[in-house]
Design goal:
Mean pLDDT: 90
Distance between the termini: 37 Å
Low-confidence stretches: none
Helix content: 10-25%
Order of helices and strands: HEEEH
Strand order of the largest sheet: 2-1-3
Strand content: 15-25%
Structural class: alpha+beta
Number of helices: 2
Number of strands: 3
Length: 66
């Protein structure tokens, strides 16, 4: 199961969107251990023990560096 499906369907975190399902549009981008990944192309089991941050977990300070 993709990370996107787990986030949206199992955890009800709907900030990451399903767009192209090919990693081209970036709608599903999340941070996994600080790296940007396309959650539609990432297997959820590959993220076991990793820190996954979606747009819901970002605050205004995180979006604009000083």
């Amino acid at each position: 199961m993709s990370l996107l499906n787990v986030l949206r369907d199992s955890l009800d975190l709907t900030g990451a969107k399903a767009g192209c399902d090919r990693g081209h549009c970036g709608c599903c981008t999340v941070l996994v251990d600080g790296r940007r990944v396309y959650s539609c192309l990432t297997l959820a089991v590959a993220c076991g023990g990793a820190c996954v941050v979606t747009v819901e977990g970002l605050g205004a300070a995180d979006l604009h560096p000083p």
